[in-house]
Each structure stands twice: as structure tokens, then as C-alpha cells.
Queue: 2 jobs
Job 1
Amino acid sequence: MCGIVGLLLKNAALNENLGRFVTPMLVSMAERGPDSAGLAVFTDRDLGEKYSLFAQDAQFDWDALERVLDEALVPTPRIEAKGRYARLSLDVEPDTLRRWMAEHFPHLHVLSAGHFMDIYKDAGHPAEIAGRYDFPALTGSHAVGHTRMATESAITPAHAHPFTAGEDFCLVHNGSLSNPYKIRRRLERKGIRFETDNDTEAACRFLEWRLREGDGLETALAEGFSVLDGFYTLLMATRDELALVRDSFACKPAVVAETDDYVAIGSEYRALAHLPGVKEASLFEPRPEEIYTWRR
Amino acid sequence: METITDTDKTVRVDLDESSVRDLNQFLHHDLAASGVKHIEVLNPNGRHNIAVGVDAPVSVDIRGHAGYFIGGMNKQARITVHGNVGWSVGENIMSGSIRVKGNASECAGASGHGGLVVIEGDASSRCGISMKGCDIVVGGSVGHMSAFMAQLGTLVVCGDADAGLGDSLYEAVIYVRGTIKGLGADAREEPMGEEDYARVAALLDKAGFDHDPKAFKRVASARTLYHWNADHHQEY
């Protein structure tokens, strides 16, 4: 199993309510994925280079990290912390930061990098995680979430979805891939590094690599159909787009509701049932191997 | 269940107030003694397992979009969903009828032994998978691999059928009014006979659709998979 949810607000006046709308979507999918959860949230404006960080140590001293960064890497970093999670804003390239972190703070996990996206993910029940990081208070233009029922790799915050690669790109997955190691070996030969042994990470890094090589999202996904073997409903987000695909068997569910105000995606209709106007929304089930994209 | 109100032998259950378990326990244990003939279910909001395992000549109206397994294992009851349903509506239906006013997700009428399932809109993939004697009438189109391994009964599709229709069919028969994107292994189109026209007309009438039976095509098993053939080398 696993649950996926996504929400893209077409009406920017609703951006203040993004967290309030998407949190019940995520929590309603807890029965499909009770062991971990995550949420990627995008703003509609460029907030400069920022990173989502996750500390293994619950008592991690974020103030100390701020001081060390200020002295050793670049001046005036800004850290906003919520327990083990922190958003770090500072003007440094992702590769440089990742290298520096691996050397100086190996127990800090860099969850994501980008100018528009923050990622929260953790192990535990989705309702607890939503409370832990105050998901209802989040604002922005679009969000992608996942509740996980692990069927292959370990249950840890790093193995939770969304997975990211590069900047401002994330992916959630319901299903299982049968050739993740083949994809992984192909990408590792190109110098692409992996952080976990999770099958979804292979799909995420493959698609991000195609995007970086110049493919559009639709071209990358069309190639994904021939490269990714297994069962999947994949939901992806970039700074201004959501994309949804299902494999040729389409045995992992998804429902889409579209109104003038939003596009909402859930594994099941009950994830969408609380949204305003959903009863009058255009509702449909995505077809196998068809690419659906929505732009904010 | 406190929220049930008995008016002229009708009860109304609001699933925002009562649980699906409360509803189903009432239907399984208390219905016969209550004399209730009509149950109205409010705020289904995509919840699963609504009105499964009913075995009584009652009508159930579910007002809104419902989730998975609606009316599963139904006997005798006449269930209507005034909205869409998720996966496996009427799974293993034995008798009675289930009508969905909107669309149905995957596996509608899966394994059904008897009774009638009507989807007024579209049904998604694997509609009628492994059906064993029920009848299914779909007002719109069906998704891929519909009637996969269907053993007995009739699937009537008033719209189109997606790829892999009737893959590995046994003795169920499929009638399609629109276009068939592709037939599955061992399924073949056959000429319509008088019996077929009568069978389609009777089901359209029961389901309340007004189409000319002459517009339907018949798909049935070529029966080449009935016996193992080593020369096929697993390629059919």
C-alpha cells in the first residue's frame, strides 16, 4: 500500500490555506501508510537558496550550527528549526553545502535543496508527524504528500517519501519497482549518488537526471515508462508543476478532482472528501501510461 | 445507533455521526426484527465497506461518493449509490442489485455469483474480473482487462472497451456497443444470434438503458486455453 496526495492551488488567494487543506488529505491516508509520512510544500515566489535539514539527534543544537556556518562557510545563514527539522537559508550552491555537511555534520541529513520547496518527512504515524511539524500552518501554492507502508527498505526518516533530487523537484510513489538496482547502477556510472537503498529513490534520481539533461517533464516521463519496471502511481512536483502517471497495469489507485480553484490528487476519494466544492468537482481516475500535468 | 431515526420503516444513517461498523452491524443483526424496508446512508465521503453482507429484501440508498467494496457479498438487497464508487463495488454479489449513478473504479462486480450490477457512468479497469454468474451492465465505457477470467454471467458495455477485453475468458459472455480497443488472449468476436439479442434486450431493460440490441457485438471465449498445450511454449 502507501497513500499519495497532492494539491495545486490555481486560485492564489487560497495559498494561505494550503496546509489546512492538505493536512486532512494526508492524515486520511494514514491507513494506507501508517509507518512514516512526508510533505513537500512549494511557495509561488523565489525565496533564495534554502535547504530542509533533518537531525538524527533530537537534541541537536541548531544555534551552534548557525554559528559554525557563519564562521566557516558563508556569513549570515538563517535557521528556522522545529525539533529535529530545520529550514536553512544561505547563499551557497547545493553541492558545496552537501560536501561541507557530510564532512562536518555527518549526522545531519539534507532532505532537499531549492528556492521554492521545503520537505518535511519523518517516521511515525502521519497524524503525529503532521502535528510535530505543524502542517496545518503551512502556506504555499502546491504540495505533495505521502504516507508509507514499507514493503522493501527500512523504516527511517530518510526512507520516507517525498524523495528529492537536484533542486525543487520531488516525487512520491505508491507501488514497488522491480528493477531499481539496474537503474541505480546505470545512474551511478554517471556519477549520480544515492542516499538510501529505497526503490523510489531510483525513479526519482532517474527522472531528475533526465530533466537536468534537458528533457521536459513529459519527455522524461515517457522515457520512464520504458525504463521503470514494476507497479507505480507516481506524483511529482517542480517549482510550478504537478505531474501524475500510473504504470500500464494501473493497479495502484489514484483519483483526481479539479475545480476552478484547485487540482487535488489522492489515492482514494476519501482523501479529497473534505475539500471545498469537491462534490461539484470534475472527478476522474487517471488512465494507465498517460501523462497528466498541471501548472500553477 | 443513536442517529438512526425510524420514520415509516425508513432509517437514515449519517456516517459523519455513526461508524460504518455501526451501520453494518444494524444491517446484519437488527434489520430483520426492526421491520425496516429502506435505509438511507448520508455522507459516505468515500468510506469503504458500506452495506456489505446485507441479506434481506430491503433498499439502501447511499447519497454521495462512496469508497471500496460497496455492497460486497450482497444478497437480496437493492442498493443504489447516488455518486461514484471506488474499487470493487458489489464484489462477490450473490443476488439482488447494485446501481451506481456515477462512475465506478476498478474491479466492479468482481467474482459476482448472481444478481445485477449497473454502473450508469464508466467503469474502470478489470470490470467483472472473475465474475461467476452475475450480470453487469455499464452505461459508459470499461477500462482495460475487463472480464478477465470471467467464468459465467454477462457483461454488457454500452460504450467502449479498453485493451485486453475478456482475457482468458471462460463461459461469461461480453456484449459491447462501442469500439473495442483490443481483445485479450483467447477472447474472440462472434456473430450475434437471436438469443444474444434477447439476452442484451432483457438486461438493457432491467438496467434502464434504451439502446438497440442490434448495435452490440458479442465477445466470447475461443476456448483454446481450456487445455494445456505444450507446443504453445507459454505463448498465447
Job 2
Amino acid sequence: MPSNRTRREFLATGAGLAAASMLPTLVFAQAGATFRIGSLCPISGGGSSYGSGMQKAIEIAIADVNAAGGAGGRKLELFSEDSQTKPDAAVLAAKKLIEVNKVQAVIGTWASGVTLAVMPLTDAANLIEMNCSGAPAISTEDKKDLVWRFQATNDRFGAAFAVIAEKRGYKRPATMAFNNASGIGNTEGFKKAWEKKGGQIVASVVYEPSRPSYRSELQQILAAKPDVIVTGSYLPDTTIILREWYQSGQDVKWIIPGWAANPDLVKALGNEVCEGIISVDSVSNENAPSYKSLDAQYLKATGKSLSSNVYAAMTYDMVICIALAMEAAGANATVAQVNAKIRDVANPPGDKVSSFAEGKKLIAEKKKVNFEGASSRLDFDQYGDVTPDFGVYVIEKGQLVRRDVVSI
Amino acid sequence: MTAYLVAVGIVALIYMLLTLGLNLQYGYTGLINFGHVAFFAIGAYASALLTLSGWPMAPAFAVGTLLAGLAAWPIGLLSLRLSDDYLAVVTLGFSEAVRITIQEERWLTKGVQGLPGIPRMFQSLGIGEYAEIATLALLVVVNAAAVALVVHLVRSPYGRLIQAIRDDEVAVEALGKHPARLKVQVFMVGAALAGLAGGFYAHFITYLSPDQFLPLVTFYVWIAMIIGGPGRTAGAVAGATILMVFLEGSRFTRELVPGVSEVQLASVRIAMIGLALILMTLYRPQGIFGERKE
């Protein structure tokens, strides 16, 4: 009976697959005393242009820590999953990391939606969660102080935009936001901070992703005759908007987040169009030794400069922060004890250190350290959020020249 | 490991509910619904918003299911005038319209910011990790009930009638039956099942945003149905299970096959599902449980 045979075959295959999926657990159950880190980077999906770089940076950091003899007497072990930049896929991946691999920290979540979906799981298991997400809700949903954010919140970016606009004497700002949590977060943050200063926004528009043209949205903004346009945007849409603006010939200045207004933008549009654009980014520690050493290793591993992926520097810092906290918490510390030390090793006061090996040495001498990361100074506030300084870069003859640093 | 398998089981059962609904519409009645995710989204958002505003979970689920069913009513009416590929396009458009409405009506859904902190099922009982096992058990019961419903429906005279509509609508009319009302009803029942699945989804993931309801979800459900065999209830059950085995099982292949990085595996995973689907259509176009011709 043909149909019977197929059913039997199918059952056999199913049983085989089920057995195969059980196999790794047996192997892992025997692993020794390592500290297990789970990475959940956006390898595929919306964050895929950053995910593999973030993953690489984590691998580099783990190798660094293990080369220095491990932290708190333990080596780090990495387990990786792909969040697919989708909350539901990330939930299952996080479950697998937590339940099967028994990780003690989940790091590298990128999209706010993914972080918000994974947080309840790590919280319930009392694990450390580290992310590069911008949504303000993450701070308030973090009830146990186990969630650490290495990216400035969109709110803070917006507030920095407002400080910059005021400093430069603009009076009639308009906003353009990409329709997602991050894009709108930027312009809403700007609006809040700007209106607090007694200012008014002359026009604002939220635009949809992946359009070939943004002419009508741009017309709507330009018709209000703003003197500066503040955006919450990404590279592809910013490229289209600026090209269309340039064709319109209207004189206006731009304040654009650093992940959109970068050397790639200049390459795409040419020096003339980009002249005078203000690019704002959290100040990466480009001059810090941690940044330079990571940049060299990252270039070797991926063939790209670290400046092409701000999140890679953040994921690198995540691992180093955990490792330093482990070192400070002492041998065989629990996750809670390690978590309690994260602020200690990252925030001032203390001797500034820029690598794990350096910090390990000072901690052994019973000194308090202050890790200066590759991504920022890494000083966490009461919510576990970083408050970096913001660099104000003006594009001049195709070069991003830092003109100012603002704090909020 | 248990909790992970429970989680995988929950997602598989949610997909199973979706597949059962679609199978009723397409497999038995021949209605091509490319907008299944819309009813999933309506059920999820309705249930989430109601519980967040203080409703108990049971009535919130009921309202979500009902709303999804009702939303299918106008689409069902359209299905009377549109056949096959035209209906496919309209339903696909409908699902995108629903998603964009959710995205834009920020006063209600918080738009792209999403809804965090949706209560988990059985959490208020204070039974810790057993809450998820309870969810799984409830899903098994609900799926069993849905299977029983579908089996009962298709074995009854009603079921013979809807299958006749699929095979030859003109002949059914010639016999003096009215396919119109039946088609609308089938559409609504299938959508209500999707709405119910949405409720479970919302309270399991605990965070909703519009980009979780892309047409991709619809096509996952289609894949599950095609693998299992359209027009077979056992096929819907098997298809959803196999889809999850592929999606989740591929996580473990990396540990068995050394030298594959996470980056490569992400692509391999999608390729595996595609390959399975191609082999399926080549060698067993009627699906695992399908019969070549009824």
C-alpha cells in the first residue's frame, strides 16, 4: 500500500529528526565550569546589514577575554542564534539559548521589538540581557535591573538634536521620520525637547519605508519654509530624500543621525549635495585604545572598517563588561553577583581601562576600574542605559569634521 | 530543554490552528486566501488591547476570535464575485491594509512602537513555569476541538456541499443549492480560527508590533498546508509540525555539522524549507496525507 509506506517513512524521518535534536543536549550537559554567553544578533531580516558584524565582534571579544586567561577563573563560552530581526523567532531562539545551552547572559539583541520580546524571558530566568535597541519602553519594562542598553535611547538622540539646533540658532525646525519605533523616537524626542525650550515645529511628516521617491513628503515639509530639517532616518531613504531636496534648490540645513549621514552617504550623493549637513552620533571612542585595537581585529576578520558598524563596537563592549564584572565579582560568582558589578566596572570613579587584560590586572591589585568602551564611555544610569556625549559633525568637502560635542 | 520544547510546541500549535483555518477555506472549499495573517493580527491585537485595558483573558479571547470572524464577512462576500487568483490578490491586499491600519492608528495600537507587557496566560495563578505547560495543554485541547469541528463539518452533508463547491461550483448551483452563503460561512469560520490563534500568539510573545504581521506569516501557513496536503485535516496537523521541525530543528544542525557559522546557517535554514517545498511539489504534489484525486 503506497500511502502506508509513505506514512511509515514520514514517521521514521520525524523520529530521526527528533532524536537528532536531542543529541546536542547530551553533549552540553557535560561541559565544564564556563560562563555561557548567548548571542542573539540580527543575522537575517531587517538588521542583517549589522548582524554578522556584531556577531564577529562578540567572537573577537570572547577570544580576547579567553586569551587573557578568562574572567573570574572561568573561560567564556559562546552560543549563537539568529534573531531573524523578528520577535517571534527571537523568543524561540532565546528559549533555546536559555533552556538548552543554559546561557547566563543574552547579548546583542538589536531591534527594539526583539529586545522587548526577549526581556521577559531573561528576566524570568534572572539572566543578564544586553541590547542595542532605542525604544524608551525598554527602560521602564526592566524591573529587575538586569537589562543593559549600549545604544543611546532615541529620546536622547532627539534631545541632543534639540540642543544642537538651539546652539546653532535655528528657529523654524521641521521633522521627517522613517516610520518605525526608532525613526519616530528620534523626532518625537526632538519635539519634546524643543517644545520644552519654548520652540515650535513648523511641519512634520512620517514616511513609509522602501519608496522609490519621497518627493511629496518633502514638498509638504519644504512648503512650511523651515530653516532646518531634523530627521529620524536611515541611509537608503536619506539618500533619496537629499537627492530630491537638492533638485528642488531650496535652501535649508539638515540635522541627521550618524547612522544615516556617514561616508557612504557622501559617496552616494557627492560632496556638493552633502556640504553643510550636520551629522549627529553618540561619540564612539575612536581615540580610545579599545576602539583602535578592535578596529584592527575587525578589519582583519571582516575586511571592513569598524566605523561601518557602530553596533559591532557595542556588542564587543558587552562581552568585555560582563568579563570585567565577573573578574570584580570573584571566582564562581552567580549571575546576580556579576550583574551587580557591571555598573562598578563601567562607571566612574576608577582607573580608566580600555581592555579586559588591563582591567583584570588592576582588579587583581584591588583597584576600582572604569571601562572606557569602544562604543562609548559606557556610564550606565539607574535604568542601565548609557548616556553618551553626542558628536556634532559637519560635512565639509566630503569629510565629516567634528565641530562640537554636546551633552544632555 | 523541557521549557524550550514547550515553547516550540506552543508555536507549532498556534501555526496548526492557523493551518486548520486555511485548510477549511482552501483545502475543502477552494477559496484562495492570501490574507490569512490579517485575521491572525486582528485576533492578536483585539485580545492584547482588551487584556491591557483590564479585561480578563477569556472574554478578550472570545472578542478577538469573534472580531476576526466578523472581519472576514465582507471579504467572504467579495469571494462570491471573485474567483481564484482575483480573490488571492484581494485578500493579500486586505491583509496589508489591516497591517498598515494597525501601524497608523497610533492612538489605539501605539503604531510601530508596539504593545509591550501583554500579560502571559495563567501567569496570575502564580504557578511559575507550569504556566507555559498549561498554555500548551490548553492549545492541545483547542486544536483537538478545532480538528473535531473541521472533521465533523466536512463529514456532514454541509462538508460534502463545500467540497462540491470546490470541485464544481456550477454543478452545485444546478442542483439547486446556494454556494454563496456557504462560502461566506467557511470564510468566517476559518478567519475565527486564525483570530483565536492570534490571541494565543499575543499572550505568548507578550509583545506585538505591526511588522510581526507581514504576508510572510500567511505563506508559512500555506507552506504548512501544502506540505501536509490540502483538504486533509491530518495534513494540516502534520504540515504545521513539519514546518516547526524545519524552522527549529535547523538550529541544532549547526552543532552536528561543524564548520557552519551562524551567518551561513541563517541562509541554509531558509534554503532547506524551500528545497523541501520544491521536492514536495515534484514528488508528492498532493502533500503527505493528500490523495492524488478524490
